[in-house]
Amino acid sequence: MKIPRCEDKVLKYGKIRDIPMYWLKEDEWRGKVYEMWKNMWDRCNNTSRPSYKHYINSLIYDDFRYLSKFFEWIISQSRFEEFCSTCNKIIWTIDKDIIDPSNIHYFPQYMTLCTQSENGSDANNRRDYSKHKKPVKGINIYDGSIIIIDSMNEAKQKGFNPSYIRLCIKGERIDYKGYKWSYLDNFQILQTSDEPM
Q1: HSE, side-chain direction, 13 A CA sphere, residue 138
Q2: 10-16 long-range CB contacts below 8 Å, 24 or more apart?
Q3: Backbone φ, ψ for residue 122 (5° rounding)
Q4: What is the pLDDT of residues 104-163, one digit of tens each?
Q5: Mean pLDDT throughout 8-29?
Q6: Rounded to an integer, what distance in angstroms lies between the CA atom of residue 45 and that of residue 11?
Q7: What are phi and psi of 10, to 5 degrees?
Q8: What is the spatial distance between Cα 5 and Cα 181, in angstroms, rounded to a whole number?
Q9: Of 37, 124, 137, 189, whose Cβ has the fewest other Cβ atoms within 10 Å?
Q10: Residue 46 DSSP code
């Protein structure tokens, strides 16, 4: 399927609509995908939204700033045909943690297209991970070696105190256990991921 392009229109939160509106309105499924894309950005950035507390640490794959890239991902999904034929009867959504319940980020290797009922079946259990899961990087102050820790729970398992790591990240402490600490940004997470795209 060929996706038409138009001049980039920068919207709220820096997302970019690079597909013409007339094309989005031609079929119902296209409008649904557009709404999914807008909702993904809104839930991760809109501080007045009640559910924001569950997404405060969630990152979105950089390419998904562009609506066209999000459409390409949707079209590549195994359930795309089912989605197109039933989206006028069933509410569909995107899920970031069915594949990996500990994941909190909107990265393509973890995301799946699913119905709202599938997404909500165990949402409360999966949300518990969000406050603990934000990858951090430690740079050794002696030899420059780097340690990547996927979550504060993992930090505890490796013998680090998450409170001291957070103090370093906030700039209230210079180093901890010989490391300078920072959160990984979106690009760094992708670069260090072993998961296939």
Answers
A1: 25
A2: 12/41, 12/42, 12/45, 13/41, 13/42, 13/45, 14/65, 15/41, 15/65, 15/66, 15/67, 16/65, 16/66, 16/67
A3: -130, 30
A4: 999 999 999 999 888 776 454 444 444 446 788 999 999 999 999 888 778 888 889 888
A5: 95
A6: 13
A7: -80, 125
A8: 41
A9: 124
A10: -
